[in-house]
Amino acid sequence: MDSQATQLLERASALRLAGRVDEAIDAYEQLLEREPDLPDSWYNLGWLLRQARRYDASLAAYRQALDRGVSEPEEVHLNQAVILSDHLARPDEAEAELRAAIALNPRYLPALLNLGNLHEDLGNRKDAETAYRGALDIAPAHGLALSRLAGVVDAQAQTGAELVERLGRALSSGEGPAERAGLGFALGRLLDARGEFEQAFATYEGANRASRESFGPRFAGYDQAAHEQFVDRLIAEFVEPSSRPDDAAAPVFVCGMFRSGSTLVEQILGSHSGVKSGGELDLIPAIAARIADYPQGAADAGEAALSAWRCFYLDGIAPFASGDCLITDKRPDNFLHIGLIKTIFPNAKIIHTHRNRLDNLLSLYFLHLDPQMSYALNLADAAHWYGQYERLMAHWKTLYADDILDVGYDALVSEPKPRTKRLLAFLGLGWEDQMLDFHLRQGAVKTASVWQVREPLHARSSGRWRNYSKQLERALGEPAR
After folding, report:
1. Among candidates 287, 332, 289, 322, which has minimal Cα distance to 446?
2. CA 332 remoteness from chain centre
3. Domain span at residue 175?
4. Can you give the CATH number for the domain in which 273 is found?
5. Beta bridge partners of residue 345, listed in sequence order
6. Which end of the chain, N or C, is less surrounded by CB atoms within 10 Å?
7. Is residue 422 a part of any domain in this protein?
8. C-alpha of 170 from chain center
9. Does 263 fall in a domain?
């Protein structure tokens, strides 16, 4: 490599480490045009292109890395699988990449864990269990593999009882708070399913404590005042519907509180021949994150910015497009950004899912979430978030009442056909008999509700809070009813 190429490599590496993604991509492309036989640089370019959401280009760069003999090729196959599964809706190709990684290195735990997760997304319970048990054969004390296994076994069967004991032993010797959190949430799920409610709640309390610890000493937790101020700004900035004429087709946005039935609604809709499920997309939050001084910057945006945001979004949902089908975007916390959505897509329809408040709070507290959802780590914080959600939704309904449809989880599971017909009428679609057999649908479901929506409709989750009424009263300081 000559001195100019060496300088290009040093510059590209420095830009990558500094997080200057676009500049680093440009530097690596210049380098590889000059010196194409650098597999590690192709790998780095593939990684950067994924950060830039240029997924096809990322796959092409990763293929160059493989073709040119990159070290640890199993990691490249794993990265390609993640892109294919998470961003391009190509799960069969993702599985092939994971199996290629395992063929190269049969003890490569990340590929086995991702293969199990992919099988969960696809509803293949036995295959998921096989993958997780394969990981545990290699590393019997692996906390994540054990936690994932707990999510696919039958809690009532003998294997469930055995796993309760195994998780308890692992939890008592967990190496750090992150591992203890994962094990605790898994054990809590099994105990809850087995009707051992006192022990389940205590286990979930410990899991949430461990989760907070795992985020490190700089983790500030949920700031109630800051979130109230953000909701205040949203309400102040979005004060009237868009007057822009717009006859373009728009996606259907399904949103509400996490764990409020949004996945169920999307799965029912996805059973219709005129609907294609997009799943839990991050496109609207990504647009909001790019807007300086959001939300004011969105409310004051000109046509050029609106056009760019629309193009960004439509490019992002292109892998899910299928003819003239409506595409659903089921991102629950898009309820925060309904003003932005209606600014970009004035014709957009919003399906707002909701459920019993206490059931919703409990379901959040029992789920292992990331630090961006810090309110879920404490029931009182979750109740505050819920109150702000109600306040904001009331505002959106004053602006966009005709384009927001409320769908209650409890009503939907108790009266599925009339509620589904109302939902279809809102979208201008007719009834199709297969819609209540949504649980038989093929395809990936990437959500914490992956197994619930593989079952026929049931009301077992309605009123679940009654199993924990004493704990809820203690945590919330109010009667549980």
Report:
1. 332
2. 9
3. 141-219
4. 3.40.50.300
5. none
6. C
7. yes
8. 27
9. yes
